[in-house]
Amino acid sequence: xxxxxxxxxxxxxxxxxxxxxxxxxxxxxxxxxxxxxxxxxxxxxxxxxxxxxxxxxxxxxxxxxxxxxxxxxxxxxxxxxxxxxxxxxxxxxxxxxxxxxxxxxxxxxxxxxxxxxxxxxxxxxxxxxxxxxxxxxxxxxxxxxxxxxxxxxxxxxxxxxxxxxxxxxxxxxxxxxxxxxxxxxxxxxxxxxxxxxxxxxxxxxxxxxxxxxxxxxxxxxxxxxxxxxxxxxxxxxxxxxxxxx
Length: 245
Prior knowledge:
alpha+beta; 4-stranded antiparallel β-sheet
C-alpha cells in the first residue's frame, strides 16, 4: 500500500472531495493524531517536519493499492472537489502531484548527491524547515517527499504541463522537477520564490477554486460545442453540448 498525505488545510469544506490516482477513484480519509503519529513513522519527510505543522497542514491521506501503482511510468495524483454547477460535467481541481516511481527517484537523487553533499527539497522549506540549519536529509526522506500532495506540488505539476518542461519518461520528469522547476532552494532561490508565490495563490482560501472550470471557445470567441456524441455509461458529452476545460 502506498500512502499519500494531502494538504487540504486551505479548504473550508472538504465534503465530497475525491482523489484520483491515474484513473482510479480512491477514498479520501481524514488524519487524526493517531494516524499522523503512524504516518510520521512511515514517512521520513513528515518526520522531518514539526508535529504541529503536520497536524495543521496535512489534514488528509489516501491509500493506494500496490497493484495500481506502476513502477515504470509517472502517475498523476489529483484531489477533486464537487462541481457546484450541475451543467458542468467536470469537477474542480484542488491539488495535484506527479508521482515518480521510487527506483527512478533513487537513481536521480544518488547522482545529485555524488556531485554535492546534500539536497534540500523545496517542499520542506515551504512548510517552514530551514535548509541552512536542518541536518542533511536521508535518501529515504528525499523520496518520501514524493508522497506529499501540496499546493507546492500542485504548482510544480502545473508548470510541468508546459511543453518544454514536460516528459512522460520518469527519469527526465524527475530531473525537470527536482532540479529545474522545483530545485533545492539554496541552489536556485529565485526559482523557489517564483514557485512559492504560485503555491501561495493556489492555497489562498479566498481564491477557491483556484482553477475554475470554464467553457472552451473557438478562435472567434464563440463557445465550442461537441460535434459528436462522447457518452459513456450515461456520462460525457452529447452533440451540441458545451465543452469545458
